[in-house]
């Protein structure tokens, strides 16, 4: 057992050891130029006289400024804004039956990973809380080479064919004439495209749901999206769908909150991930797979190759096969998070592609984009991208080549180098593609089995609780309400009516429009000029499954009652009850939550027993949207609370966002400012006696509910 532990630790550290050779630490060192020349004055340029012009001769100035002038590289064309962390993946038991992938065989091995989360549409400096899909890209540094699972937090994609990807991205990005709006889909070009492409409807439902505004990157699911293949030692193939399930559950904020967080702290998600890891609250996900035998390929009501479809968990259950833990922040954002290059085509023996036309196009795009982003075909040599597996081939030269390949031989076959490097046999780990039989004509076309664009959009909508449905309706009212072109709004209402009549009517009400009685026939505009339009007319296929609980975040919230890493604001002022603070703080910290003392000014305030307490944030800095719950400890607070509009706004906002509010002996304050009928059912936990332990338990239980949506209607 001891050996197993050592083995797993060694395996986990392999990438860190590999990165060590490139690290540089200036502690106790003298400053030098890039050439190693020690620098005597880094503050003044070389001049002809104290007040004279700078000299061209000043190679130190020139080196410094030249380097600075070239510090930026192109940001990613999509997923530009991202945050990443190191960690490991460990399989629970061997998956040998289905795949020969090395990292899925041995539970004692910890495979190093580097995982980057991102928004899609915004630029590098845009807000974390945009309504958007989140990228969820994992690079596994396996002994057989790098494996990248480049997924999203939504299990489906907007389009079915990579041919449409540039159009989709052009439509959602800021409009090209004025570069507006930033990191937002609520504008004409996006919805123009969407309203002409019915295949986007299923993903649109997910993006309009609260999945698109996660509470934390640590609290969202991840999906491989496409159907992939597992290949075992006998060369048998099973189809596989990948799922990441967060240990903390899947949670979101509300849209009003998201918009305010964007102003108060646009690094909200990035900071949350960073701090959790620094505090040792390592985020964790379990990897689940849906495995489908090759023979069942055509047994579904949809096409397994269609990336706009899920395989419902009720139809094929998810098997949990391992876990990923992120336990180390990068040392350098640019070197690691910015330069990491993911690619769905980075696979290892035991995993293979399917003919999903979106995946097929991605297999071209990712290497291609790194060439302009990182500037050279040698991007694999950048430390964060470097494999920990041995790497030998005859690729040579190119910009910024690091490796010094020795000898005369850079071709194969060769006799002068003894035939090296040798091709690897299958039993030596040599990769071979799955030899799928293909018997086809060359066509520029799409399969009719891809024509059902609405059924799973309806399934998703039907599976939501009423609260979640309301949020989708409001999101659509917001997004479509921002449009300047009524024809686009009308086309969208027509499409929404194909998903659910009530949904379309409610959105129409918000827009002050009527659902068109005979909407434009939703032809699929994504077809060729000479195509038989009738053939491509969207078809609804009757679904045997009417609703899937797994698709609703709120129906699954009982799975994640934990309040670990949740943030609680303690509203305090001079004279606040010290015992109440200490008691609640201890109770919350025991559950893994953390607290911040918020008071009128920074520094310290005097508490009831005369002791001083350190203030974490003043009301000028703190904002209710940055917290999960609010607690008002007993003391001489009430007078202060009643007279302070900032405090009332703070609590009002927490109330509006359905968060738990707890107060000792402050009923009068709560009752005068809020509805008299409020009680624990509504997440307002009041306490007459500040030492009552059941109060703290009730407060923590209520926090486990996360939000009290029954308050929303009233708001
Ligand atoms: Fe993509 C980046 C995920 C379709 C072309 N994509 C990128 C990233 C993620 C995804 C997570 C960021 C990786 C990182 O953190 O560096 N993309 C997806 C998913 C898709 C998808 C889940 C559909 C299922 N993507 C897709 C298509 C194409 C691209 C169809 C092109 C045909 N994606 C790119 C890209 C990016 C990229 C342009 C930009 C930066 C990069 O690759 O490295 O090549």
TrEMBL record:
Signal peptide, first to last residue: none
One annotated Gene Ontology cellular component of this protein: cytosol
Cofactor: heme
SMART domains assigned to the protein according to its UniProt record, in alphabetical order: Catalase
Domain Catalase core span(s) in chain numbering: 32-420
Record SUPFAM superfamilies: Class I glutamine amidotransferase-like, Heme-dependent catalase-like
Chain positions recorded as heme binding sites: 76, 116, 165, 362, 366, 373
Covalent cross-link site, 3'-histidyl-3-tyrosine (His-Tyr): 343-366
Active site: 79, 152
Membrane-spanning segments: none
PROSITE patterns attached to this UniProt entry: CATALASE_1 (PS00437), CATALASE_2 (PS00438), CATALASE_3 (PS51402)
Reaction catalyzed: 2 H2O2 = O2 + 2 H2O
Similarity remark: Belongs to the catalase family. HPII subfamily.
Described purpose of this protein according to its UniProt entry: Decomposes hydrogen peroxide into water and oxygen; serves to protect cells from the toxic effects of hydrogen peroxide.
Entry protein name: Catalase
Protein species of origin: Flavobacterium caseinilyticum
């Amino acid at each position: 057992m001891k050996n197993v532990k050592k083995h797993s630790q060694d395996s986990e550290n392999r990438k860190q050891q590999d990165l060590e050779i490139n690290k540089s630490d200036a502690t106790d060192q003298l400053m030098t130029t890039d050439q190693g020349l020690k620098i005597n004055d880094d503050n003044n340029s070389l001049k002809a006289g104290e007040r004279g012009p700078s000299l061209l001769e000043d190679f130190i100035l020139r080196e410094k400024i030249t380097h600075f002038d070239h510090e930026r590289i192109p940001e990613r064309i999509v997923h530009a804004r991202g945050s990443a962390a190191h960690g490991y993946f460990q399989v629970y038991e061997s998956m040998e039956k289905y795949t020969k992938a090395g990292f899925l065989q041995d539970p004692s091995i910890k495979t190093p990973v580097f995982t980057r989360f991102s928004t899609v549409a915004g630029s590098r400096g845009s807000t974390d809380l945009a309504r958007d899909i989140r990228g969820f890209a994992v690079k596994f540094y396996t002994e057989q080479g790098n494996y990248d699972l480049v997924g999203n937090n939504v299990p489906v994609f907007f389009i079915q064919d990579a041919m449409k990807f540039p159009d989709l991205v052009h439509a959602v990005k800021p409009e090209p004439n004025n570069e507006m709006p930033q990191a937002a889909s609520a504008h004409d070009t996006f919805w123009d495209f969407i309203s002409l492409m019915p295949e986007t409807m299923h993903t649109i439902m997910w993006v309009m749901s609260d999945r698109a505004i996660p509470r934390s990157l640590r609290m969202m699911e991840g999906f491989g999206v496409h159907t992939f293949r597992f290949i075992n030692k006998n060369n048998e193939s099973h189809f596989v769908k990948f799922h990441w399930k967060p240990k903390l559950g899947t949670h979101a904020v509300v849209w009003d909150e998201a918009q305010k967080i964007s102003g108060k702290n646009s690094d909200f998600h990035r900071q949350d991930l960073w701090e959790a890891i620094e505090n040792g609250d390592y985020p964790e996900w379990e990897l689940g797979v849906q495995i489908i035998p090759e023979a069942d390929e055509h047994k579904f009501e949809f096409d397994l190759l269609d990336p706009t479809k899920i395989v419902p968990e009720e139809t094929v259950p998810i098997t949990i096969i391992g876990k990923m833990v992120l336990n180390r922040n990068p040392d350098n954002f640019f070197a690691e998070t910015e330069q990491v290059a993911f690619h769905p085509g980075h696979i290892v023996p035991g995993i293979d592609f399917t003919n999903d036309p979106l995946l097929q196009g991605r297999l071209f795009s990712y290497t291609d984009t790194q060439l302009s982003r990182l500037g050279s075909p040698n991007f694999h040599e950048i430390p964060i991208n470097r494999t920990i597996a041995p790497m030998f081939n005859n690729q040579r030269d190119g910009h910024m080549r690091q490796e010094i390949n020795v000898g005369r031989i850079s071709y194969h076959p060769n006799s002068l180098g003894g035939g090296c490097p040798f091709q690897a046999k299958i039993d030596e780990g040599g990769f071979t593609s799955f030899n799928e039989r293909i018997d086809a004509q060359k066509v520029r076309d799409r399969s009719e089995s891809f024509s059902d664009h609405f059924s799973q959009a309806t399934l998703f909508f039907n599976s939501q609780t009423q609260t979640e449905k309301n949020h989708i309706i409001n999101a659509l009212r917001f997004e479509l309400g921002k449009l300047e072109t009524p024809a686009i709004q009308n086309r969208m209402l027509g499409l929404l009516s194909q998903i659910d009549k009530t949904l379309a009517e409610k959105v129409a009400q918000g827009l002050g429009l009527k659902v068109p009685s005979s909407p434009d026939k939703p032809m699929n505009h994504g077809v060729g000029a000479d195509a038989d339009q009738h053939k491509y007319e969207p078809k609804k296929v009757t679904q045997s499954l009417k609703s899937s609980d797994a698709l609703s975040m709120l129906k699954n919230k009982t799975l994640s009652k934990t309040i670990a890493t949740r943030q609680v604001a303690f509203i305090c002022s001079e004279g606040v009850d010290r015992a109440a603070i200490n008691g609640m703080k201890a109770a919350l910290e025991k559950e893994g939550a953390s607290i911040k003392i918020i008071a009128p000014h920074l520094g310290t305030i005097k508490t009831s027993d005369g002791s001083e307490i350190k203030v974490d944030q003043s009301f000028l800095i703190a904002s209710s949207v940055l917290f999960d719950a609010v607690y008002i400890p007993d003391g001489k607070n009430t007078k202060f609370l009643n007279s302070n509009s900032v405090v009332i706004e703070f609590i009002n906002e927490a109330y509006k966002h359905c968060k738990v509010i707890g107060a000792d002996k402050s009923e009068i304050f709560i009752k005068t400012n809020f509805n008299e009928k409020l009680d624990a059912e509504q997440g307002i936990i009041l306490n007459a006696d500040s030492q009552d332990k059941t109060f703290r338990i009730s407060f923590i239980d209520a926090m486990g509910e996360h939000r009290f949506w029954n308050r929303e209607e009233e708001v």
